[in-house]
Design a protein that fits this description.
Elements: H1 10-13, H2 21-29, H3 40-43, E1 48-54, H4 66-76, E2 82-89, E3 92-101, H5 124-129, E4 134-139, H6 141-154, E5 158-163, H7 172-182, E6 189-194, E7 199-204, E8 209-213, H8 229-232, E9 244-247, E10 255-259, H9 262-270, E11 275-278, E12 282-283, H10 287-301, H11 314-324, E13 327-328, H12 329-350, H13 355-358, H14 361-367
Helix pairs in contact: 10-12, 12-14
């Protein structure tokens, strides 16, 4: 937003200044999250949640390609004039580059995952200047939060918001460092994904695949500022202000859809019988993994090094976690509690004056089962 003609909008639109999720959810979806409804405290307002996959996976997609296919269908049917999203930079396939796509076949270029920062919302003014009145945006939570603040002011006739979950982002340069810790030939890696079976999957340009258990990742070797404070204190992993969220976290190996409102249902209907859906499953117990995460985060937030699991135990636990760890919705709930704990602990350490404004009420409810309660002047009145 700082790159637009009205950079002062950053003061009210930024997710990290004084978010009011209850009011925003009510405006966007017609109601705020209802804690009496199963899972809304965790995942935000929704009409339905589904496991899903395209019956014919799209070539080059990160999963089966639901997100980019939604953009294609919007353009094919004439529902929108343009889709604002990210494509790979010509000089670096991992670096995101904001693009305006106006032809359905152009959505093929945006498939896949990228890591880094890119000014997606700076395209809003060029899109409007080009005369596009019906627009779709594919974005991560901090982009969608700012977009929703500006929605009425922008004056588009129709706006579809397709959200992807986001937990931690970093610079593309930092991401290349991470790839270098995973392989002695990082330039040959063509695909990376954190899977719901507690493994990171790598694919290489010669067709090889490699799955690394989470517990074997060299996360403790990363610099302390690898992820910025904003990402370590984000309270909207699930993109609660999107019309539809498309991710994988509770998909048990498939994709995971959160249809949040009527416009989200309209988007899903565009796929027709191209998509296979089922109710999401849930198994395992999250308490122990979340407590272990909390203990390590307390050390990190206190400036201490992360505890390293003994090397001889890592392969054993890496084999065991996919069998006994939380899966499906329970995996999703665990991840949301971890993010909430991370938010509180890091803010207390690094920016305590911001806690009252940055931590919504629902986040305090997520951390309460783990003995974390708001201190004086930490919770909103």
């Amino acid at each position: 937003m700082s790159r637009t003609a009205t950079p002062g909008d950053c003061g009210t639109a930024c997710q990290f200044i004084k978010p009011d999720y209850a009011a925003m959810e009510a405006r966007v979806h017609g109601r705020a999250r209802d804690e009496s409804r199963p899972n809304e405290l965790f995942f935000g307002p929704f009409q339905q949640m589904l496991r899903a996959r395209l019956k014919a996976p799209a070539e080059g997609a990160q999963w089966t390609g639901i997100t980019s296919r939604l953009g294609e269908r919007l353009l094919e049917t004439g529902a929108v004039d343009a889709v604002l999203t990210m494509a790979p930079d010509p000089d670096d396939k991992w670096k995101p580059r904001p693009v305006i796509v106006t032809r359905a076949e152009g959505m093929a270029q945006v498939r896949g995952m990228r890591m880094g920062y890119a000014p997606l919302l700076a395209l809003l003014e060029p899109a409007r200047a080009a005369g596009y009145k019906r627009v779709a945006i594919i974005g991560i939570p901090c982009q969608v939060h700012a977009l929703r603040h500006l929605e009425e002011k922008l004056g588009f006739e129709r706006l579809y918001v397709i959200g992807t979950p986001c937990s931690d982002n970093t610079t593309t340069a930092n991401f290349h460092e991470f790839l270098g810790l995973l392989s002695d030939k990082p330039d040959t890696i063509t695909y990376l994904e954190f899977r719901a079976d507690y493994h990171v999957e790598l694919r290489f340009d010669d067709g090889r695949k490699k799955a690394i258990p989470f517990l074997m990742l060299p996360l403790s070797d990363l610099r302390s500022d690898f992820f910025p404070l904003t990402c370590r204190t984000c309270v909207d992993y699930t993109n609660a202000l999107a019309d539809i969220t498309v991710g994988y976290m509770a998909g048990e190996g498939e994709q995971w859809l959160i249809v949040r409102n009527d416009r989200g249902a309209e988007l899903l209907a565009l796929l027709g019988d191209e998509v296979a859906t089922a109710a999401p499953g849930s198994s395992g117990k999250r308490a122990a993994p979340v407590k272990g995460f909390m203990a390590n985060t307390e050390r990190a937030a206190g400036g201490l090094p992360l505890r390293r699991m003994p090397n001889f135990l890592r392969p054993i636990m890496g084999w065991l976690m996919p069998k006994v760890g939380p899966k499906g919705l329970e995996f999703g709930r665990a991840r949301l509690e971890m993010k909430a704990i991370e938010t509180v602990l890091h803010l207390r350490r690094e920016a305590p004056a911001k806690m009252k404004n940055m931590v919504p009420a629902h986040v305090w409810k997520l951390v309460a089962p783990y003995g974390i309660m708001p201190g004086k002047d930490e919770a909103r009145d």
